[in-house]
Amino acid sequence: MNASFGIADVMALRSQVLARSAALRDVRAASEAGRIFAPAQAPGTAFADTFNTAIKQVSAVQDHASQMQVAYERGQVTDIAQVMLARQEAGVAFEATLQVRNKLLNAYQDIMRMGG
User: Fold this and answer.
1) 16-24, long-range: CB < 8 A, 24+ apart
2) Of the candidates 59, 62, 68, 105, which lies 20 to 30 Å from 51 by C-alpha distance?
3) Comparing C-alpha atoms, which of 91, 114, 111, 92 is closest to residue 103?
4) Contacts 24+ apart (CB under 8 A), 108-112
């Protein structure tokens, strides 16, 4: 009983590491895409497009996780590890988006305080 508990912990940690790695790759890809197209667009437009793309990617990851969960509930997917990995990936992507939003909001508030 104790050995299976340890294995479950290792598998959960593995899933978290893989999900965070995938989320970081997505963020890096979005960041690099923004740098490639930045000279052709106005600075505000490039930022908005990059941010919009990142939001769409997070939404796609969440949709995929939901579809995996529904497929598991219907018996179409039998590997619970895949479902849990998709849920973890969606959670990490959402948390990263929240952190970016919070940083942007703090920066905006700091800029507004400077004007006064």
Assistant:
1) 16/88, 16/92, 18/85, 18/88, 18/89, 19/85, 19/88, 19/89, 19/91, 19/92, 20/92, 22/89, 22/92, 23/61, 23/89, 23/92, 23/93, 23/96
2) 68
3) 111
4) none
pLDDT band at residue 77 under the 50/70/90 scheme: confident
User: Please, is 89 exposed, middle or buried when counting C-beta atoms within 10 Å of its C-beta (0-12, 13-18, 19+)?
Assistant: buried
Assigned token pair, 52: 């919009």
Residue ranges of domains in the chain? 2-115
Contact 38, 47 (CB under 8 A): no
Higher pLDDT among residues 104 and 21, named by residue = 104
Q: What are the pLDDT digits (tens) for 15-52?
A: 777 777 777 677 767 666 555 444 555 666 787 888 88
In one-letter notation, the amino acid at residue 50 is T
